[in-house]
Amino acid sequence: MIRRHLGTLAIALAFPLAFTATAQAQSYPAKPVRMIVPFPPGGGTDILARLVAQKLTETNHWTVVPDNRAGAGGTIGIAEAARAAPTGYDIVMGQKDNMVVAPWLYKNLSYNPVKDLTAVAHVAYTPVVIVTQANSKFKTLDDVVKAARAAPDTVTYGSPGNGTTIHLAGEIFNGAAQIKMRHVPYKGSNAAMMDVLAGNVDLMVSSVPSALAQIKAGKLRPLAVTSAKRSTSLPDTPTVAELGYKGFDVSTWYGLFVPARTPKDVIATLNAEVNKLLATPEMKAAIVAQGAEPQSMTPEQFEALLKTDYEKWKGIVQASGATIE
Prior knowledge:
Helix content is 47%, strand content 19%. The chain is built from twelve helices and ten strands. Strands 1, 2, 3, 4, 5, 6, 7, 8, 9 and 10 form a ten-stranded mixed sheet that branches.
């Protein structure tokens, strides 16, 4: 008899907890959601983050507020997300740079991406593009290689910051072409863009979304994209592999993450709503217009991509010899 009463009591106590968790998930979001953007306004990450935030707000009548937390190659914003309460009200637009490259570059990083954060929704991927000022002396990538071989460490290239995939794309190309270009890091894509447009640096290695507007305006000349295949947005721009560097393939992805231990029902809700957006012709066109390629995944698929790339880039970073204190 006592055992029967204890069992009934346990069920009675558990039921309100289960009901509360379900009710919370069904009412999510009951207040504004902060979307942390780990780079300054105007770059590729910021553009995609604001697009997702805007469409979630318009379509679902949610309030999703972008919050730029830039610095240290995007790691400051990711660290803030990792420290946030696991409620679903703090999400972050992460990308390959700060999720799978930075952990192997920075010696004292405060977060572990595969332990402290959980993948929610993959949004898009994009090749990296090597660009120069429209009136630059560099007309082709071969021009760059010849100049760098003739005078090592004199050809300069800017990037959004140390430790980004974009920075390493330049270093990997240095190795592939057996040249030495000088890296000039900036705090985000916009600052690097201004200097390449002004002629203060010779080249910029950039995500396609960050550079596309200036390319279309005729102010930047794209020399090559670093992905295995050509960009939909830049179909006339050859790949690095096509130009003689077989197997060269560096691209980056963007997606939403939440702190570890965020309720699975909240993650499922976020994933379903983002994937609905990505399936609409309007959203697809908006992402392609920014130079990226939309791609949806389940949380499990995105988590698997995170873990695979995390291990893959360990070897790439170690081979490059790059480190950041």
